[in-house]
Amino acid sequence: MAQPSSLMQGESGDPRLHTEERQIVEKLEHEREKEFLAQGQNLDGLIRPQQRLIHDPDVSFAEYYHYAQQTRAEEDTQPPAGKTGLIGLLFPSKSGPGAGHGSEDVSKVHVTGDLVQRAVVSDDEWAQASRALRTATQGTAFYLITTDILGPFALPYAIATVGWGPGVALYTVFAALAGYSGYLLWDIFLGLDSYQFPVRSFGDLGFRLYGKYMRFGFSILQGIQLLLNVGLITMSNGGALSQASKEKLCYIVCCLVWALVGYFSGQVRTLQKFGWLANAAVWINILCMLVSMIGAGKYGPNYGSVDSSAGISIDPALVTPVNGTYPPMQSSGGIPASPTGFVGAVGGVMNAVFSYGGSMVFPEFMAEMRKPKDFLWAMWASQAFIYFVYMFYGLFMYGYQGQYVANPSYLGIASYGISTAGNVLAMLSAAIAAALYGNIGLKVLYNNVFVEIFNLPPLTKTSGKILWIGFIPIYWSIAFVIGAAIPNFSALTVVVAAFCILQFTYTFPPLLHIAYKVKRAAIADRGSFDPATSASADKLSFNDYLRYFFSNRWYLNVIHVFYVLGALACAGLGAYSAIESYKSSFASGVTTSFTCKSPFGS
């Protein structure tokens, strides 16, 4: 999930300048860039890709598409990237050959945001610098997609809130649609990414199809999701540590311990060659699932964790002891009867969405692949892995623990030894995920928001590196406050799923593909980009959008419109469910902010 640091954001003004001074400096820099562009044109008047701004609004869709087709054609001539087939997926190479070729010294290529520095870069050097960053294989992509800490351990809770039949049906639908959304992102990426204009993030897709405000929106929402993910990991690891200590350590202190771990692990600005970490995290999760299933099958539920169980969301009476005796374990074929109506069921559905939250960083994965075309096979393989393995685990845990299944599920085992083993494995895997989420989350916010909007220095400057050191404790402190102030784990997962994960996985891909298909239709009608003249008819009016919307295979655009509306409606229901869950939890006293008692019990 780490993003390459080679193509950094453009240089920004000194943040210590006053507003008036900065405006003058920015004006002078803008005039300097315009003069440079005019001088840097070829004799035929063309502007080369390396003489463009990192996010240049003057680059047309047709130009992006033209160079993307050149890149794809070149990739087709390259030998296979690392191991292929099932062996290549399960045992990827630790480091494979890059997409580059030839003997160019890439270290001498100045791929920075400074247009003047890039003036000495030739066309071949510019493309070679981009090729050199693409080293990942489909096996690496498989493990990165399946690297997850919340998905498998939230699914038993999700199934318990909706019952056997609806749980299997909804999870199957989510899997199919998530795979289709991944295909849409893959199709868009292949049509927009090139060595000349590489795509680095989800925000880049939004920029090239809808403009800068869409990119800012994507980047901010992506940063928020990663921050909330770190908060959830802080909560789950805090609960695991508290349970392992038999609550001899205060829950809030346990969460603080993981925040302090983040202070130090987050100081690493780059995460190069971390594919083996993703590989390890997947196998650790599988081992944790096996331990949890053994414990659930032999020892039954942990009644001390009923406050985080599915029964609380369905009907508190299902997990409330009568004369000191807890109600028997039960399961339901359909949606369980609940005094809260469909709120608990919707919350469970949103927890299931967590299993398919990787779409947010699919563009980052493809950006590092030697052959992005190979991503599709890796994506479908990972989605199939997630579906079958997670589904088996969720059904198994629900069958043995019923309404007592906790979220996360490894905290609901009655045996201290088994639960401790599961907790240790989960904490180890979560520590890996938290380091990756925290690093990428802060990079997304810093590079795309603070650098471009607030003119802070980029991470390539010494001042930017110093600011990074200061931002890390702030970032992890916010995550700690989220976990400590709102220790209702299930409700917070619903918030993250409804407002963030569901959007990146089910709303944005079809929305982006509509614009992509419309602009493709415009190229077919008006002619493609001509590199000899830089000519492209790329500006479309509303009537043009409407006409091309109903052009070739228009029914797909219509389907995607309904897909977007359905995802938004589901997100609205999820948001409503989360709000109602918070209201009832705080009203009943189940959720207490900054508490010493673990909400997961022991």
Description:
The chain has 602 residues and is mostly helical. Among the domains are: 13-45; 60-99 and 116-222 and 301-416 and 486-588, no CATH class. The chain contains 20 helices and no strands. Helix 6 (151-162) packs antiparallel against helix 13. It is globular and about 85 Å long. The two termini are 34 Å apart. Mean pLDDT is 78; it is low at 1-28, 36-44 and 95-113.
Keywords summarizing the entry:
602 residues, mainly alpha, 20 helices, 62% helix
The major sheet is characterized as:
none
* Helix vs. strand class: mainly alpha
Q: How many strand units? A: 0
Shape: globular
The percent of residues in helical segments reads: 55-70%
Number of helices: 20
Kindly report the oligomeric state of this protein. single chain
The share of residues in extended strands comes to under 5%
SSE inventory with pairings:
Blueprint: H1 19-40, H2 61-76, H3 85-90, H4 123-132, H5 138-146, H6 151-162, H7 164-192, H8 202-210, H9 212-244, H10 251-265, H11 275-299, H12 310-314, H13 343-353, H14 362-367, H15 375-401, H16 416-450, H17 462-485, H18 489-526, H19 542-549, H20 554-588
Helix pairs in contact: 5-11, 5-15, 6-7, 6-13, 6-15, 7-15, 7-18, 8-9, 8-18, 9-10, 9-16, 9-17, 9-18, 10-17, 11-15, 11-16, 13-18, 13-20, 18-19, 18-20
Quick structural gist:
It is found in: Membrane. With 602 residues, this protein is an all-alpha fold.
